[in-house]
Write a structure and sequence with these properties.
Strand order of the largest sheet: 5-4-3-6-7-9-8
Helix content: 25-40%
Largest sheet: 7 strands, mixed
Distance between the termini: 61 Å
Length: 300
């Protein structure tokens, strides 16, 4: 923070007209965000472009343009939100995921690149012409279900979430993206679909332990979508147990989990009769997604 104050000192006693150009405001915003964001320059570009309601490319083409007081006020408000720790996606109201531009809000997790691995694994299992029933449990913004539905348009995707506010966001994403083959249901995990069967079930459940220090950095996101008991495994155990009743014989379950939970997740799945358990590393090399199959003929 002290370094930031020194950097900002160069603007301290100068007339606003001298620092109100796009170029100067971009430098100013970047300096404010150093130490707060690992991508300070990119964040500054996105917030400034949003403040003037123009694409990022406009900033580079018109660095000499002068911002009016309203635009500067909007930028200052956005910077304050980002400096307080609010995710960029909540400030801008959107996040790209699987080439889909998704609406997000504080009612939903911010979709992350690691979850794209889960989508990739699910899509590897589903042939392009398949008309299967697919389930997304804990859909949040709808990221997983919508990505699968868009890439497998003959499939019938059902997306479930316990939060009505999250479902409202997911439905809006389906509307804006014109993806018709998704149904959204409110309820606790498998409860809304207990009388149905699915060929593929995908979920990014809560998996952070209640005492994990990482929660401080995630405080702007909904705790209900993050925290899963003292060891972070409560939701995964629920899914391992309850998804058996709603999956087709030989069907696939795909779960995202913490990088340190690989062995614990495999152990829970085995204890509930899941087979062919395999863990996949994310793009940073961390074990992040586990798949498993279930055969009713193997149960007693």
């Amino acid at each position: 923070m002290y370094a930031n104050l020194l950097t900002l000192g160069q603007y301290a006693n100068r007339p606003m007209s001298e620092i109100a150009s796009i170029e100067k405001q971009l430098a100013y915003a970047t300096s404010r965000l150093r130490g707060v964001s690992e991508s300070a320059r990119l964040d500054a570009e996105l917030l400034l472009a949003r403040s003037i309601d123009m694409p990022r490319s406009y900033l580079f083409a018109h660095p000499e343009d002068i911002l009016d007081d309203d635009a500067i006020g909007r930028l200052e408000h956005a910077l304050a939100r980002r400096i307080s720790g609010e995710p960029m996606a909540y400030i801008t109201g959107s996040k790209e995921f699987w080439s889909l531009e998704l609406v997000v809000s504080p009612a939903t997790l911010v979709p992350r690149p690691e979850t794209e691995l889960l989508v990739d694994i699910a899509l590897r299992e589903i042939p392009r012409g398949a008309d299967w029933d697919v389930l997304d449990l804990g859909t949040g913004s709808g990221a997983i279900g919508l990505a699968i539905a868009r890439d497998r348009p003959l499939c019938r995707v059902t997306a479930v979430d316990v939060s009505p506010d999250a479902l409202a966001v997911a439905r809006e994403n389906a509307r804006q993206l014109t993806i018709p083959n998704v149904d959204f249901l409110e309820g606790d995990w498998t409860a809304p679909v207990v009388n149905r069967k699915f060929r593929v079930i995908a979920s990014n459940p809560p998996y952070v332990a209640s005492g994990d220090a990482a929660l401080e950095a995630l405080r702007a996101e909904p705790a209900i979508a993050l925290v899963a008991g003292e060891d972070g495994l409560d939701s995964i155990v629920t899914l391992a147990r309850d998804c058996r009743a709603i999956i087709e014989d030989g069907g696939l379950l795909v779960l995202e989990h913490g990088a340190e939970q690989k062995d614990a997740v495999a152990e829970r799945l085995l204890s509930y009769g899941w087979e062919r358990i395999q863990c996949y590393d994310d793009y940073a090399g961390h074990p992040r997604v586990t798949s498993a199959y279930f055969s009713s003929s193997e149960t007693t």
